[in-house]
Every structure is written in structure tokens, then in C-alpha cells.
Known about the structure:
Order of helices and strands: EEHHEHEEHEEHEE
Shape: globular
Bound molecules: adenosine-5'-diphosphate
Largest sheet: 5 strands, mixed
Distance between the termini: 46 Å
Helix content: 40-55%
Strand content: 15-25%
Amino acid sequence: CVANGRPQYRRDGSFSGYIGACVDITEQKYMQQQKDDFIGIASHELKTPVTSLKAYTQVLERMLQKKGDVREAEMIGRMDGQLNRLTSLIGDLLDVTKINSGKLQFNNQEFDFNTALEDLLEDLQRTTTKHTIVKKLVPAGLIHGDKERIGQVITNLVTNAIKYSPHSDKIIVYTTINDNELTLCVQDFGIGIAKKNLNKVFEQFYRVSGEMQHTFPGLGLGLYISSEIIKREGGRIWVTSEEGKGSTFCFALPIANRNK
Ligand code: ADP
């Protein structure tokens, strides 16, 4: 039951009681649980056939390349790319169910931040021919955290920067460091986000509506998952943006214990 009461006072100022409404949310909670269960089961069931399809396309691509059927191999390669997209969407759905049920696992340990970041940015650079990822990185040393999960956040921010800046050719990834925080920002020069929508983009399933935005595919989960990961790592995530000019997404992680 969610109570929404206000204290009432007599004329002499003494407290006389509460007036308010109490809403029974048992049904709402049940529906939410049903929704979470459905997403969990559906994404789990989708994962197996997609994984097997991926294995087949990779074998097929190699066979066609060996035979010298370049055009066919290229088509299968594109199919594999689309399967990667599907795998990542299913992964996002599975992560959301894990977050909602408090089961998102973390494997925190020390890792060399810049080495991991450079490797990741190299992979991400390979996903775009249009954009150049410009790096402005300070040496961050060893960081304590889940390398895969933090990598997932960076991938998300850079992938979004690429997706939402179709008419620009540059993305800047920069890091700064102070005594107790490492900050990483991804800046793009794309469509930007209106002020009124800025604080909503980290919500589950939220997608900015509008003529421009509808042309970009997505489920509205990447930033929600990213913000949950950063929160669980003890950090914070935020965005600054100007519509039509571009956006800068940043996160900061605590590094107070890194030399202990
Ligand atoms: P998705 O991109 O799958 O829709 P996200 O959770 O990653 O989901 O992002 C939520 C919404 O925030 C997007 O639908 C988009 O409207 C907006 N957004 C995210 N990143 C950017 C960006 N770099 N530039 C402009 N809009 C963005």
C-alpha cells in the first residue's frame, strides 16, 4: 500500500492526525513481476536459436571466402552483423530482467584501465567507416571494478554517439582524473537532446520521441543499463547536450582505493 498523507493541525497548532489516500499496489506489483518474467523467458528462449544461427553464418562465410564467392560471402557477413545486433538486444533484455530482480552479477577486480579502453576503442573504430574516434586520454593506472561491465557502458555510449550523429565524422573520447575520481566522456556532434528530455534518457525503455529520433533503431535500454552499472560501481553518470549540436555523456568512477 502506498500512502500519500498530509499532517493536519488544529487552530492552536497542535497535531490532529493525517488525511490521505492509501493505494493498494499489489496488482501493479504482480503485473510488473509478470512483465519481468515474460521478458526474461522470451529473451532466454531467443538467445539459443540466435547463437546457433551465428555459428552457421560464420562457417558459411568462411566456406564462401575459400571458394572465392566474394559477393555471397559479403552478404553472409552482413547477416552476421545483423545477428550481432540481435544478440546485443537480447543481452540488453536479459540484463534488464537481472537488474529488476537484483541478480546482475559483478566481478570486480583490478585492471589496467587505459589498456582495456584502447582495446575497446580499437574494436569500436572497426564498426564505423564514417566516424573517427579521437582519443584524449590521461594515464588512469589500475582501476578496481568489473572490466566487462564498465566496457559495456563505454561501448554503449560510443555506439550511441555513432548512431545519433549520422552527419558528423568525429567522436571524442576523453578522460580526466583527480584525487578520487576517474571521469570518461564521449562527445558527439550529432542530433543532440532537448533540455526537457535530458533527465529522462536514463529511464528504462525511454526513447526521445520526435521526427528525427524515430529513424534510429533501439529499445531504450542501453542508458538505463549503463546508469545501473555505474551506480553499482559507486559512480555517477550524466549528460550535457544541445539539440542540433551534439551530446556529451560522462561517467565518473571512484578511484580512492586504487593505490592501497
Ligand atoms: P536506444 O538508443 O536503444 O534508444 P538508449 O537507452 O541508449 O536507448 O538511449 C535512450 C534514448 O536517449 C535514445 O532513444 C535517444 O533518444 C537518446 N540518446 C541516447 N544517446 C544519444 C546521443 N548520443 N545523442 C542523441 N540522443 C541520444
